[in-house]
Amino acid sequence: NAADAYVGNLAVGTYVIEKDGLVNLKVAAPAPYGSDPLAMAVRKDWPELATLIDRALFAMTPKERQTIQNKWLSLRVEYGLQVMDILKWVGIVGGVAFLWIVQLRWMVRQRTRQLRHEIRLRRTKETALMAQSDQMNAIFDSLEAIVYVADITTMQLISLNRYGCSLFGEDWGGKKCYEVFQINQDRLCPFCNNDRIVIGEKPQPYQLREFFNEKTGRWYQAIDRVIPWPDGRMVKLVIAFDVTDRKEMDRIKDEMLSVVSHEVNTPLTAMMGFAEMMMENDIPQAQQKEYLDIIYQESERLADLFDNFITLQSVKMGLGETFHHRIQIQPLLERTVDLFRNLAPGHQISLALETALPEVDGDSEYLFRVFINLVSNAVKYSPQGGAVRVTASVQSANLVIRVSDEGVGISPPEQERIFDPFYRVDNRDSRTFGGMGLGLALVREIMDKHGGKVWVESSGARGSSFFISLPLPESLEAQAQSLSSFSRTA
Predict the structure, then answer these.
(1) Which ranges of 282-351 would DSSP assign to H, the alpha helix?
(2) Three-state SS at 327
(3) Phi and psi of 156, rounded to 5°?
(4) Can you tell me whether residue 259 is helix, strand or coil?
(5) 394 near 472, Cβ under 8 Å?
(6) Which among 255, 293, 299, 278 is positioned nearest to 438, based on CA atoms?
(7) What residues contact residue 140 under an 8 Å CB cut-off, 6+ apart?
(8) Per-residue pLDDT tens over the stretch 122-169
(9) Rounded CA gap, 34 and 319, in Å?
(10) Where do the H-state alpha helices sit in 143-221?
(11) How many whole angstroms separate alpha carbon 423 and alpha carbon 252?
C-alpha cells in the first residue's frame, strides 16, 4: 500500500513495518495525540487465554521483558527538525555563547586594566630612566674631563660627553675608541688595560692609568671600569682628567731641585766661606770690603733667582692679573736703560724710538720686569764693552720692542727651548754666566698674559735680538698711525 504518512502506536507501527517490509518508512517524531499503553488482545470467547497470558506476563523477569521488547519493539527513530528542539538548542547554544562572551569581555577588561597598569609602570620607569640619563649626561657634560663608554668586546663608542666632543669632534658614532682618540691607530692602544678590568667576563675593581694623547698634546689620568649596560652587554666606562699642568709642575719641580741644588748651593757656599773667613781671621779692611762685595753679589743673585721663580709661579697661577690699565711704555724703557747704565757702565746701552709710543693695556710692574730680564740677559751675555740696543716701533696693530746684543749667539735648535723654565744654552760661555734659566720663561709667561708674543733671532755665531710684541687697544690704533715719526737716542 502507498501512504504519505502513518500515525499510530509505535509497537503496531513496528509490527507493520517488519511484516510488510516497509523499509522506506521511518519513525520521524512523536505525535501530539497521547501515548497508548501496550496491551495484548484475545477473543471474547477465549477468556481463559487472557488469564493464562496475564499469568505468563506477570511471571516474566525484567530481563525477559527487556529481551522481548528489544526484539519486537526496537526501532531507530530519526526525528526531523522540530521547532521546539531548534528553539531549545538555540537557547542552550545562545546561553553558552552569551556566558562565554560575558566571561570573555570580563577577561578582556581585566587584561586591559592589567596592560594599562603595566604600560603606566613602564612609562614611569622609562621617564625615570630618561630623567636619570639626562641627569647623568648633565653631570658628565659639566665635567672638565673626557667621559666615554665603549663596548668592551668591540671597543665601539656608545657615548661621549660634551667635553670629549669639543676635543675630538662630533663624528664619533659607530667608530672605535682608538680611531677617535688617537692618530693613525687601527688596534688597541699599548696602554689599554682591558685584560685587567675584566677577567673571564667578571668585572674587576677600577684601574688608574696615565697616558699621553698625541691628538691634544696633553697628559691624562684615567679611571677605567667595566659596568653592565641597560641592553645587557658589558661596557668600559672611562673618565680621563687633564693632568698636563700637574705633570709640568712635577717636571719643573724635578728640574728646580736639580738646578737649585747647584745654583743655590754655589752662592751659599761662597757666602758662608767668606763670612766664616772674616769671623775667624783678622782680615785687612780692604780685603774685607772685597769679601763683603762678593757676599752681597751672591746674595743679590740668590734674591733675583727666588724673585724670578716666585713671580713666574704667581703669573702661571693667575695671581695679580691686573692687565686692564692703560699705561705708557716709553717711561718704563727709559727707566730700564738708565738702571743698567749705572749697573753696567762698561756697556754701551742705548734706547732708540722711531715714533712716539702709544699707550697699551697692561701691568706696568710686570712689563718692567720683562724689560729688566731682556736687558739683563743682553748685558750678561755680551763681552765687556759690547753694545746693547733697545728699540721700539709701531707695526700694524702692535707695539714691537727689540733688545739686541753683540754677545754669545743662540743656535736655531735652542732658540725655542730657551723660553722653557730652567733651560739654559749648553755651551761654555753660558755656564760661565750662571743662572737658573727662569728669566726668559717669566718673560714668555707675562707676554702670554698680555696677549703678546716673544721670540728671538740669532745667527748662532754672534749677537742675538729678542723681540716682544704687545697688541694695541683698538681706540689707539689710529692714534698710533697718525703720530709723527721722530728718532731719539737716549
Answers:
(1) 285-316, 330-343
(2) strand
(3) -80, 135
(4) helix
(5) yes
(6) 255
(7) 147, 161, 162
(8) 888 878 767 766 777 777 778 889 999 999 989 999 889 999 999 999
(9) 125
(10) 162-168, 177-181, 194-197
(11) 10
Burial status of residue 16 (CB atoms within 10 A of its CB: 0-12, 13-18, 19 or more): middle
Q: Dig out the grid coordinates for 465 from the structure.
A: 735680538
Q: 27: which DSSP letter?
A: B
Is residue 334 within 8 Å of residue 426, measured between CB atoms?
no
Q: Quick one: which of 356, 353, 396, 354 has its CA closest to 483?
A: 356
Cα–Cα distances (Å) from 294 to 102, 332, 373, 436, in that order, read: 115, 30, 22, 19
Whether 247 and 212 have beta carbons less than 8 Å apart is answered as: no
Rounded CA separation 157/165 (Å): 12
Q: Is 169 left (phi over 0), alpha (psi -120 to 50) or beta?
A: left
Residues 129 and 421: their CA atoms lie apart, in Å, by: 51
Residue 251 DSSP SS3: helix
Which residue type is seen at 79? Y
Q: In whole angstroms, give the CA distance from residue 338 to residue 332.
A: 10
**pTM higher than the cut 0.70:** no
Higher pLDDT, 485 or 12: 12
Grid coordinates representing 82?
522540530
Round to whole Å and give the CA distance between 438 and 205: 44
Helix and strand numbers (H, E) in the chain are: 15, 15
